[in-house]
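no rush on this but wanted to send it before i forget. what follows is a protein written twice so to speak, once as letters and once as structure tokens for the fold. mainly i need to know what kind of three dimensional shape the backbone takes. thanks a lot i owe you, the record is right below.
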Amino acid sequence: VGRPSIDPVILVKLTFIQYTFGIRSMRKTIEEVETNMAYRWFLGYGFHDKVPHFSTFGKNYERRFKDTDLFEQIFYRILMTAANKKLISAEH
């Protein structure tokens, strides 16, 4: 039967959490999501919703994003938007 598919938006948000907060593995990221209500809210998971197993995310991530530069594009646009709004500068 295999593992279920994961919404690509959830995959991007999970990766955002992982990199933003310096979490080194998807296993640890999922552990954090299981107990952190802010992460759960950000991902759209309710208090009682079961978070899928970390390997489900890994397989889906690899299948969808392995050979793309999607994340680089997203983070570049975030940085450019923040710089244009003077929220960040290149001086620091």
In short: The helical segments are 8-20, 26-35, 37-43, 54-65, 70-84. The first helix runs from residue 8 to 20.
